[in-house]
Write a structure and sequence with these properties.
The protein is mostly helical. It contains 25 helices and 2 strands. Helix content is about 65%, strand content about 0%. Helix 1 (about 15-25) packs antiparallel against helix 2.
């Protein structure tokens, strides 16, 4: 005989004879004066022998007969218990639960209450095991229903908290997180003293986050952190849940959720508590930086700067943290700029450059973004000063100012060129645009020079022609630099304020080739243009003119040096001749000499103009100028 996978054992003949003898005694209704209860005992012993040799089907029939015949006696209870045990040993929990229900309605007498309690335990245990089986078979929703049915029938059952918890886990398995969260809430509310309540409370926080219920999640994490301390109860250890590990996570989650809720000051407090409570945790560095982010978002620049300085003191010597150190220093520089402290900002830019040089960071790395930006900002200062140099006054004054503007132009271009050495594409493109602006700005300055001769006179026409002959090649250089910049930007699929400005300027010269997008076109249409309009493309006759009125030397030259952005070998070759080159500007021009009032015989620096050898993209960051409250975050 085999019963649901359990192999029965052969019954020896002597035992069979014994069972037969007991059966005959019971069937014949014989009496034994010294023991009036001998018949039920023989019936039970016979059934028990079948049970012992694992003939469960036969044993169950005999146990059921005993229960039916002696429902008010203890032997009926014993028979019922062993009947249930046969199903338990077969792991047939559905049948165990059914028979538990039947037995609870049959057994009577003085021991009925105890019997029913025992039967109830068997029934609930069977129901629990049935739910576990469904869970193991990945029938999660059916398992959850079974667990909830158990709790509904017996909320005081010792495994009721576990059944609720398991139902919640089952719902998580099928991604019914809202249902899971509600059941977890029942665990810690209905069974607050259960060791599972801590686990359930933590899971409420997790599932609340999934549904963006940040207030509820924050409250759950806070309550978990405050209420549950080590050591971890054994029941939770068996579930691979460690209070020691979850408490710091709950504290960090509280900080993150406070950030999401825009409670930035609270977030800073949680991060600070985490650092002080768990100084050896591997997330301490991140927490330090997030304090910086918290005060930035709280619009409290003074505290932000204080925390940046603390971060630099703590991690300044760590090569793995140099990127954030430089980012923090850049924010301090921007803070100085916002508070109109240009000297302090300049010092910080210079400090950034020195800190980068002293570090192990390489050009092209993520930290190079900030040193490239710092170099760009220093160059911008020179550019602003250079723009303020105007060419005006008498002929001699114009000559002096022109020479100064030429010399300063070389210095400014060199400053922007230094950006290239850090191999950060975003700021290299920005520098490329600005160098193009140098040429274009110089050309516009020449177009706007007040001519110190009578309008319509020959001297007036000659002088204006000479200025144009210098300005047109400068425009060509600007266009070439802009084209190189926009080409590289398109190759790398970069769009930012510098590429937009580059395209806008190119559109002035090549509107068909470089059309504007809608927003750029609208911005362009709102601008007020001053001074003379730039020429879209200089005529060949002007560019290569052999006119008697002016020479190729006077035109400023159009022989561009095709140097690489990173090559400094031609700094002098592409430079500007000194002011002696302008001495040929004769005072006789003022008296009407046909040789004219020559503006300058100097060539404006092209800042190694010509190459499009830009560095590869190194950091996915925007080079846009940032306000102190809009610095890049991680």
């Amino acid at each position: 005989e085999e019963s649901d996978g359990i192999q029965s054992e052969p019954i020896p003949s002597v035992v069979k004879d014994y069972i037969t003898a007991m059966d005959r005694f019971v069937v014949l209704g014989l009496d034994y004066k010294e023991d009036q209860k001998i018949q039920p005992k023989f019936a039970f012993n016979a059934a028990k022998l079948y049970y012992d040799f694992k003939h469960f089907d036969t044993a169950r029939k005999r146990f059921k007969w005993i229960v039916d015949e002696y429902p008010e006696r203890e032997i009926g209870f014993l028979a019922g218990s062993l009947l249930l045990e046969t199903y338990r040993r077969e792991e047939n929990y559905d049948m165990m639960a059914k028979w538990a229900d039947r037995l609870s309605g049959i057994l009577k007498g003085d021991q009925a209450k105890a019997v029913k309690e025992e039967v109830q335990q068997h029934r609930l245990g069977a129901l629990f095991k049935s739910a576990e089986t469904l869970f193991d078979e990945e029938k999660y929703e059916k398992a959850a229903d079974k667990y909830l049915e158990l709790v509904s029938q017996a909320p005081d059952y010792e495994n009721a908290p576990l059944a609720l918890n398991n139902a919640a886990v089952a719902y998580e398995e099928v991604k019914k997180y809202q249902s899971a969260m509600k059941i977890y809430e029942r665990v810690y509310r209905e069974y607050p003293d259960s060791p599972l309540s801590g686990y359930a409370l933590y899971r409420v926080g997790v599932n609340s986050e999934r549904f963006f219920e940040f207030d509820k999640a924050l409250q759950s994490y806070q309550l978990f952190y405050d209420k549950y301390e080590p050591p971890t109860p054994e029941a939770l250890q068996q579930m691979n849940f460690s209070v020691e590990q979850k408490r710091p996570k709950a504290l960090l989650s509280s900080a993150v959720l406070s950030m999401n809720l825009q409670n930035y000051r609270d977030a800073a407090g949680y991060y600070r508590q985490f650092i002080e409570t768990y100084p050896d945790h591997d997330k301490v560095e991140e927490a330090h930086w997030q304090i910086v982010e918290s005060w930035r978002k709280a619009d409290d620049p003074d505290k932000m700067v204080e925390e940046i300085r603390n971060y630099r003191d703590e991690y300044g010597g760590n090569p793995d943290r140099i990127g954030r150190v430089l980012e923090g220093m850049m924010r301090i520089a921007e803070w100085h700029e916002a508070n109109e402290r240009p000297d302090e900002a300049k010092s910080m830019y210079e400090d950034i450059i020195e800190t980068f040089k002293e570090s192990e960071a390489k050009p092209g790395s993520e930290p190079a973004y900030y040193v490239a930006e710092a170099q760009f900002e220093l160059a911008e200062r020179k550019y602003t000063t250079w723009q303020e140099v105007t060419i005006e006054g008498s002929l001699q004054q114009q000559k002096t100012r022109l020479d100064k503007k030429i010399k300063e132009q070389k210095k400014v271009a060199s400053a922007f060129k230094k950006v290239w050495q850090y191999k950060n594409l975003e700021w290299t493109l920005a520098a490329g645009f600005r160098i193009g602006s140098l040429f274009q700005g110089f050309a516009e300055a020449l177009y706007n020079v007040p001519i110190p001769f009578k309008p319509g006179s020959k001297q007036y026409r000659i002088y204006r022609k000479q200025l144009e002959d210098i300005a047109i090649p400068l425009e060509n250089k600007a266009v070439k630099r802009y084209e190189q910049t926009i080409k590289k930007a398109r190759e790398e699929k970069i769009v930012n304020q510098w590429t937009k400005k580059t395209l806008e300027q190119l559109n002035k010269f090549r509107p068909q080739q470089y059309p504007l997008y809608k927003e750029e076109r609208e911005a362009r249409e709102t601008q007020i243009q001053t001074g003379r309009s730039l020429m879209a493309s200089p005529p060949e006759s002007q560019e290569n003119s052999d006119s008697n009125e002016t020479s190729d030397e006077t035109s400023g030259g159009d022989n561009e040096t095709n140097d690489s952005p990173g090559d400094s070998s031609s700094d002098e070759a592409d430079g500007t001749s000194d002011s002696n080159a302008s001495d040929s500007s004769s005072d006789s021009s003022a008296s009407g000499d046909s040789s004219g009032g020559q503006a300058s015989n100097s060539e404006v620096s092209d800042a190694q103009e010509g190459s499009s050898d830009y560095p590869a993209r190194s950091a996915a960051r925007s080079p846009q100028k940032k306000n102190p409250s809009e610095t890049p975050s991680n």
